[in-house]
Amino acid sequence: MASIKPRIVFVSEGLEITHRQMEALAALHAKGSMQKAAASLDLSTPVLHKYVREVEEKAGASLVSSTSKGSRLTTAGLELLERFRAYELRLEDPPTLRVAGTVVTERCLLTAATELSDTGKDVSVTISTDESNLRLMREMRVDCVLLDDAMYAMDEAPRVQSEEIGTDMLMFREAGRRFAKLSFGAQRLAFRYLTEKGLPHEVIRTIHEPTMLDRTDLSYFVNKSLVRTGVVRAEGANDQKWSVHSVIALRCSEHEDLELFVEEAREDWLYRKG
User: Mean pLDDT for the chain?
Assistant: First the structure.
């Protein structure tokens, strides 16, 4: 039997943007000129112009900027092309399960991914910030995001299915009103608490490498899970019972291996629900 593959059709305000029209944008982005892009697709330049105009009309935005030096995609054009490529990835056969988390959930994420890989599943892992991972989710470039900041999960609740895989809490090392803020973990929860309690504080440094917390003389909050796993020593830091919060799995697709991954992540998290 002949190979059958699905193709993407975008719909904007009820108007269809075809796969061929998106190929025209992709070629233009790659070649940098209308003439070269048309040649790469075995089209005439007027036909390529026609495709571009049609896509712009349907998208309701200017997607291409042309000068005497060539043509390039505008910000809107790049965003549309990025979404197109993300959807294309979703149609890969066999599909790779794409999961994302931060350094707080890294050990859990990698362990669960390894368990699936051991059974022959194909898993791709991204470690970044919650903000970056949520952007990947909105672009449909991941199937699951493990969030260590439950406040983000509340923001995304109307759009995706979420569930708790475990809990964590913050530890606090007190060294005055000047703070270092870690770029991972439930930091928004921590500083909202200080603000609500009227406690004076000033964030003067953002730390991206967790181990550097052990070398700062500033006050800071850190997830207890990072201390338990030996990433941070956090000498002199104390548990903050008020800060117990959920670690959340956001289901971003209907991937056939997603249920198994979430179950593995729940088993591998340090502090299980209940």
Answer: 87
CA dist list (Å): 13 to 17, 18, 140: 10, 14, 20
* Same domain as 253, residue 131: yes
Q: Which amino acid is at 82?
A: E
Give residue 188's Cα distance to chain centre: 18
1 in a domain, yes or no? no
Strand-pair partners of 222: 171
Q: From CA 138, how far away is CA 124, in angstroms rounded? A: 17
Q: Do 216 and 254 lie in a common domain?
A: no
User: Using one digit for the tens of pLDDT, what is the confidence trace for 126-182?
Assistant: 999 998 898 888 877 899 999 988 788 777 756 678 899 999 999 999 999 999 999
**Residues 136, 228 share a domain:** no
Look up tokens 């088993």; give the residue: 267
- Residue 147's Cα: distance from chain center in Å? 10
132 and 36, same structural domain? Answer: no
Quick one: 150 and 187 in the same domain? Answer: no
- Check whether the bond before 46 is cis (ω within 30° of 0): no
| Six-digit token string for 155 | 């923001």
**64 and 176 inside one domain:** no
Query: What per-residue string of b and e applies to 70-104 under the rule 16 or more CB within 10 Å gives b?
Result: ebebeeebeebbebbebbeebeeeeeebbbbbbbb
- Owner of token pair 């809990």: 167
pTM for the structure as a whole: 0.69
- State how many domains the chain has: 3
Same domain, 132 and 174: no
**Which of 47, 74, 90 is where one domain is finished?**
90
Reply yes or no on whether the pLDDT at 245 is more than 90. Answer: yes
What are 27-55's pLDDT values in tens digits?
Answer: 888 889 899 989 998 989 999 999 888 88
Q: CB–CB of 24/48 below 8 Å? A: yes
